[in-house]
Amino acid sequence: MRLLIASDLHGSIESLRFLIEKARQTKPHLLVLLGDLVYHGPRNPLPQGYDTPSVLREMPDLSALPCPVSAVRGNCDAEVDLSLLPFPVAENAWLEADGLRIFASHGHHLPENPPCPGLKPGTVILRGHTHIPRGETLDGLHFWNPGSLSLPKGGSPRSYGFYADGVFRVLDMQDREVLRHVPATAEA
């Protein structure tokens, strides 16, 4: 199974267009959006290409892709923004890919490290929020973060995630690999 994963677009039309084109190229089975789609947020600078009206006008292009969209709400996603999106947005979502149980969340209500109450070892915690790419296993939990296509932090590049053939990778906008993580269940 192939998952194309993006987080923290924060109203950047350039990032949305990049994501749409990347979905057309990679033909994922599922496009996963990890929140903070429209508004830049009160503590963030305006991202390159910040244009919320255009983002909202072009967001239906995601629904026209030949793959479904699974989206979760971020801390900067207001009710008014969500009401204008062409697909449902959940607080969190459970996904399955190649035998992996994936808990998708924006991540602002989750701890950065274990313990993570209610999540069993082997679970992938797929989150955004920090704008910093991540792929590691701690206490049997797999922590994945695609970074941000619009407002990277911690010295990381603008990036997105891609899962295929048991491997989670974070790639920059030139498709250079930033990191890779193979969960223990996929290594066996």
Pick out its properties:
188 residues, five-stranded mixed sheet, seven-stranded mixed sheet, 12 strands, 5 helices, alpha/beta
What is the helix fraction of residues, given as a range?
A: 10-25%
Distance between the termini: 17 Å
Bin the strand percentage: 25-35%
Mean pLDDT metric: 94
SSE order, as H and E?
EHEHHEHEEEEEEEEEH
**Total count of strands:** 12
Query: What gyration radius follows from the Cα positions, in whole Å?
Result: 15 Å
Biggest sheet overview: 7 strands, mixed
Oligomer: single chain
Morphology: globular
Q: Which structural class best describes the helix and strand composition?
A: alpha/beta
Total helices: the number is 5
Strand line-up in the sheet with most strands: 4-3-2-1-10-11-12
pLDDT below 50 for ≥5 consecutive residues: which ranges?
Answer: none
Short description:
The protein is of the alpha/beta class. The chain is 18% helix and 30% strand.
Give a description of the structure.
The protein is an alpha/beta fold and 188 residues long. Strands 4-3-2-1-10-11-12 form a seven-stranded mixed β-sheet, covered by helices on one side. The chain contains five helices and twelve strands. The two termini are 17 Å apart. The protein has helices at 13-26, 52-58, 60-63, 79-83, 184-187; strands at residues 3-6, 30-33, 69-72, 89-90, 92-97, 100-105, 124-127, 134-138, 141-145, 159-164, 167-172, 177-181.
